[in-house]
Amino acid sequence: MRIVVDLTRCQSYGQCVFAAPSVFRFHGEEALEYDYTPDDQFREQVRWAAAACPVHAIILDDQDEQPKHISHKENIMGGKA
Ligand code: SF4
């Protein structure tokens, strides 16, 4: 999972910080910092954070789920399942 926050839209409401404090945090009074590629264990929290953002500034990219499907297929085709 990758995250992009459109900082031109972010109004520092802090909803994402409450929803996923391990991923989003404030540096100083209003500067939002975040992990671009959070661990999978925070996936649900990040989705809540994106849903909670009042200005829809958080964009999620779940493309890294694809390789899991590919490797699963490869396992089946390779007879390792
Ligand atoms: S919830 Fe949205 S507007 Fe608020 S700090 Fe997070 S990204 Fe910025």
UniProtKB/TrEMBL annotation:
GO terms assigned for molecular function: iron-sulfur cluster binding; metal ion binding
Transmembrane segments: none
Keyword terms, alphabetized: Electron transport, Iron, Iron-sulfur, Metal-binding, Transport
InterPro entries: Fe-S_cluster_ET (IPR051269)
Top-level taxon: Bacteria
Gene3D superfamilies associated with the record: 3.30.70.20
Full protein name: Ferredoxin
